[in-house]
Design goal:
This protein has 335 residues and is of the alpha/beta class. It has two domains: 4-191, Rossmann fold (3-Layer(aba) Sandwich), CATH 3.40.50; 204-322, GMP Synthetase, Chain A, domain 3 (2-Layer Sandwich), CATH 3.30.300.10. The protein has eleven helices and nine strands. It has helices at 4-19, 32-45, 63-75, 85-92, 98-117, 132-139, 143-151, 174-183, 188-191, 211-230, 300-313, and strands at 23-28, 49-55, 78-83, 123-127, 164-166, 256-270, 273-286, 294-295, 317-322. The strands form two sheets. It has a five-stranded parallel β-sheet with strand order 3-2-1-4-5, with helices on both faces. Strands 6, 7, 8 and 9 form a four-stranded mixed β-sheet that branches. Helix 2 (32-45) packs across helix 8 (174-183) and helix 10 (211-230) packs antiparallel against helix 11 (300-313). The protein starts with a helix and ends in a 13-residue tail after the last strand. Residues 142-156 have low confidence and may be disordered. The structure holds xanthosine-5'-monophosphate. Residues 102, 144, 148, 152, 195, 197-199, 256, 290, 327, 331-333 line the site of xanthosine-5'-monophosphate. Residues 2-193 form the GMPS ATP-PPase domain. This is GMP synthase [glutamine-hydrolyzing]. It comes from Pseudoduganella buxea. Catalyzes the synthesis of GMP from XMP.
Length: 335
């Protein structure tokens, strides 16, 4: 059994004993693991922690601002935000191969992070939100697992940095990390978010990544997520069942949901005119482990509302399709 206040004070003591008066750097992605690690380490050592938040321009709508508000404004954490959009877009121009895109994003990410870290030469520690399943995964040889590690969790720690690793979540499972995050004062909504891949919208814009595509996708995706959150889910409540895990809405009832930008134009009508605009696909899946997944049977009314809203509100998109492929054979992401 898990006593949260005791756990937090022990973890805090352990971090203090480990780092002493040293400075610590942490790469904040806005994801659950790095966020909870940041909140915990900040609780332990306050301003000895500096977070570096690299905005690659492939984040969701208002995501960068939300990360800054939550950490810098609300929790008083030192966060350096680096807007590297132009650098990433520049290197991605003309590149269409999915693995090539991942490699570029991963490489630039490390580069930007390294350049920022070099501005903090007194730092002795690199903190990471590694959790127990990551430890297991990198011990095994999951094909995708290694690809994910290599860029996402700054796993490719640059040799030259000579920093010691601080990984306070190494022994925790995801659900424990979430509970810890809430106990540390992070918003429930943030801590229970769906996973978001390291390369971000880079793998949800098929083929070449462009500013224009990212803008359209961000807006469509935000509408989809908003409607999922706002649509109640009629759960069968089993007495004695952990109430926290009963989904209240369709966002909570799905494991991952997002929009995908297809660089394909099709014909539509709008008022008296004809349109010739892009398509977005909606993807929503239910899964335990993300190795296999079912497409979510979202209510038709919900899908209809999302489609209407996207087409009416996002000029440049005139068609919405729903992905009804399971994994396998399809993957969750489209690239
Ligand atoms: P797939 O598309 O392989 O995705 O069914 C399974 C899970 O992994 C996530 N994913 C990634 N996460 N970097 C990441 O950090 C990646 O390159 C990447 N590719 C897929 C995906 O979002 C899903 O949760």
């Amino acid at each position: 059994d898990w006593n949260m206040p005791d756990y937090i004070s022990e973890a805090v003591e352990k971090i203090r004993a480990q780092v002493g008066t040293d400075e610590v750097i942490l790469g904040l992605s806005g994801g659950v693991d790095s966020s909870v690690a940041a909140a915990l380490i900040h609780r332990a050592i306050g301003d000895q922690l500096t977070c570096v938040f690299v905005d690659h321009g492939l984040l969701r709508l208002n995501e960068g601002q939300m990360v800054m508000d939550m950490f810098a404004k609300n929790l008083g954490v030192k966060v350096i935000r680096v807007d590297a959009t132009e650098q990433f877009m520049g290197h991605l121009a003309g590149v269409t191969d999915p693995e090539q895109k991942r490699k570029i994003i991963g490489r630039e990410f490390v580069e930007v992070f390294q350049a920022e870290s070099a501005k903090l030469p007194s730092a002795k520690w690199l903190a990471q939100g590694t959790i127990y399943p990551d430890v297991i995964e990198s011990a095994g040889k999951g094909k995708k697992g290694q690809t994910i590690k290599s860029h996402h969790n700054v796993g490719g720690l640059p040799e030259t940095m000579k920093l010691a690793l601080l990984e306070p979540l190494r022994e925790l499972f995801k659900d424990e990390v979430r509970k810890l995050g809430v106990a540390l004062g992070l918003p429930h909504e943030m801590v229970y978010r769906h996973p978001f891949p390291g390369p971000g919208l880079g793998v949800r814009i098929l083929g070449e990544v462009k500013h224009e595509y990212a803008e359209l996708l961000r807006r469509a995706d935000a509408i989809f997520i908003e409607e999922l959150r706002n649509t109640p889910y009629e759960a069968v409540v089993v007495p004695g069942f952990d109430q926290d895990s009963v989904p209240r809405n369709w966002y909570e009832a799905t494991s991952q949901a997002f929009a995908v930008f297809l660089p394909v134009k099709s014909v539509g009508v709008m008022g008296d005119g004809r349109t010739y605009d892009y398509v977005v696909a909606l993807r929503a899946v239910q899964t335990q482990d993300f190795m296999t997944a079912h497409w979510a049977h979202l209510p038709h009314e919900l899908l209809g509302k999302v489609s209407n809203r996207i087409i009416n509100e996002v000029r440049g998109l005139n068609r919405v399709v729903y992905d009804i492929s399971g994994k396998p054979p399809a993957t969750i992401e489209w690239e």
